[in-house]
Amino acid sequence: MLDEKFKVCEFLCSIEFLIKGVIEFFDNSISPGFILQEEHRTLFEGPGNIKYRATAIGSIPLGRVGTADEIAKTAFYLASPESSFITGQDIIVDGGSTIREHLDLLQERELR
Q1: How many Cβ atoms from other residues are within 10 Å of residue 33's Cβ?
Q2: 69: domain range?
Q3: Rounded to whole angstroms, how far apart are CA atoms 62 and 73?
Q4: What mean pLDDT do residues 21-35 have?
Q5: pTM of the prediction?
Q6: CB 61 within 8 A of CB 99
Q7: Are 101 and 32 in contact (CB under 8 A)?
Q8: Which of 3, 18, 44, 100 is the 20 to 30 Å CA partner of 60?
Q9: Computed over its alpha carbons, how large is the radius of gyration of the chain?
Q10: Which of 10, 35, 18 is nearest to 92 (CA)?
Q11: How far are the Cα atoms of 26, 85, 103, 109 from residue 89, in angstroms, in the given order?
């Protein structure tokens, strides 16, 4: 559902840029990490998922899951004039999970 909202936002922003006569090429993307959506909050925070929740949160360096609002703010920034010099980038919004994975791989290599 969130993907559909972003596609609509991306389409509307593209139309807005074309209407204003600003024809530029912006090819950016957002790679979200673990995002807790409202419709899953009860399940995620339920008493039967304590171990899963602890594992999920423990794998995120910031110590929490992300929110749809944080992804939306990133999308709006990329669609705004403030990001006019950003192109061809993948913005990773994952609370540091990706960097942790890379650090874990480096540590494994050092142990070999």
Answers
A1: 18
A2: 2-111
A3: 18
A4: 75
A5: 0.66
A6: yes
A7: no
A8: 3
A9: 18
A10: 35
A11: 9, 11, 22, 28
| pLDDT at position 73 | 93
What's the total number of domains in the chain? 1
Reference 79, options 21, 28, 35; nearest CA is 28
pLDDT for residue 70: 93
List alpha helices for 1-112, DSSP H: 2-19, 38-45, 50-58, 68-79, 97-111
Would you state the structure tokens that stand for residue 86, as one six-digit string?
A: 């950003």
Helix axes 68-79, 2-19, angle to 10 degrees: 20
Within 10 Å of residue 79's Cβ, how many Cβ atoms?
Answer: 18
Amino acid identity of residue 61, one-letter, is: P
95 in Cβ contact with 64 (< 8 Å): yes
DSSP label of 85: T
Question: For residue 109, what pLDDT is reported?
Answer: 76
Assign residue 12 the CATH number of its domain.
Answer: 3.40.50.720
